[in-house]
Amino acid sequence: MASSPQLLTRRQALAGMIGASGGLVLFACGSEESVVPAPVAPTGGLSLGARFADGFQAPTVITAGTPQRAPYVLIGADGWPATEVPDQIELTVTSGDQVVFAGTVGRHGEPNAIPYYPLVFTPPATGDYSVRGTGLPGRHRLRVTDADRLGLIQVGDPMRPVESPTLADPHGVNPICTRSDGPCPLHQVTVAEAIDRPGPTAMLISTPRFCQTDVCGPALEVLIAAAGSLDPSWSVVHAEVYVAPEDNDFGLTPTVAAYDLSFEPSLVVADTDGIVTAILHFTMDTPEVSAALESAT
Fold first, then answer.
1. What is the pTM of this model?
2. Each residue of 232-241: pLDDT tens digit?
């Protein structure tokens, strides 16, 4: 598949993000057809694998001073993400001799998708951290930077207005939605219009047809389902990643540029004042999306 150099570089890195096992993974989103087996306790051969930009395989997205989310998978002895995994794992995050986080992280993931474990912790300072799992060999290293050094939006920031494509005005993006059965219903208003409306806003940047990482999952379908039960005051927007991929134009859309993304999917939720209350990067499932939406009400 052709792609923009910026996005492909990050995606290739994401596909290779692993723990001590050294595995390499690359799947198309939503293409997993096998049923996920019942979870079992961790056994020999499993290790942590990062499914986020950790600062070593790709420039970090983890910043100091606010809660950060780092989704992990368990890698099998064969180097592939395991599906026979427990309902929870015990993780410890350290910076030097300081324990920053120690606790249980629950299993997440949509049916038939690779299960993942979203670690949420607050790094107190910039620098390198170690993540270890009880009963799992080795460690995973991640790097924390200052939010000012990244262009990524953070919880507490104002949502960024952008003229995202709509059914009425595609703003030069074609197709405005790469959902397999045609444009999804989340293209009625632009992000800028949504922010100006009186209710909360949710915006998902994703490209269902061209997603490459193994755990990004059916994020758009999850959000569509969740949007159906929201109060009418909500504005829910989906924005694509590429300008015209069917014409081999893999330039990034203005929405991607406005949110300074070199990965996807990314869900941003804001309250009625347009202030961001929740962000989900890289992968998400129904419980996480529901919690993100609830944060704005």
1. 0.85
2. 999 999 999 9
